[in-house]
Amino acid sequence: MEQFRKDYKEKHPNVKQVSVIGKAGGDKWKSMSDADKAPFVAKAEKLKAEYSKKIDAYNNKAAGPATSGDSDKSKSEVNDEDEGSVEGDE
């Protein structure tokens, strides 16, 4: 779609509506054969695999410190409780 947008804008410089460009891209995709779509599908699968690796690594890194804490409360909740007890003691 990225390359299609560039080509379409060069051929139709006056068209600024995203919906028109998207519809034209969808129509072109529908008219393509499976063989014509193959390089794009392969690229999408490769990018999806890379994304999955990155998101898994991120989720594993983010989950590590959160599970090692003694409490399920966030720091702001703990601080709120501390502030509340100080105010009540005055």
UniProtKB/TrEMBL annotation:
GO cellular component entries: nucleus
PROSITE patterns xrefs: HMG_BOX_2
Residues in the DNA-binding region annotation: 1-59
Main location: nucleus
GO molecular function: DNA binding
InterPro entries from the UniProt entry: HMG_box_dom (IPR009071), HMGB_plant (IPR031061)
Places the protein is found: Nucleus
Keyword Nucleus: yes
Keyword list, A-Z: DNA-binding, Nucleus
Region feature (Disordered): 55-90
Residue ranges of every copy of the HMG box domain listed in the record: 1-59
Coiled coil: none
Superkingdom in the source lineage: Eukaryota
Record's compositionally biased regions (Acidic residues): 79-90
Keyword Nucleus: yes
Name of the protein in its database record: HMG box domain-containing protein
Species this protein is from: Zizania palustris (Northern wild rice)
Lineage: Eukaryota, Viridiplantae, Streptophyta, Embryophyta, Tracheophyta
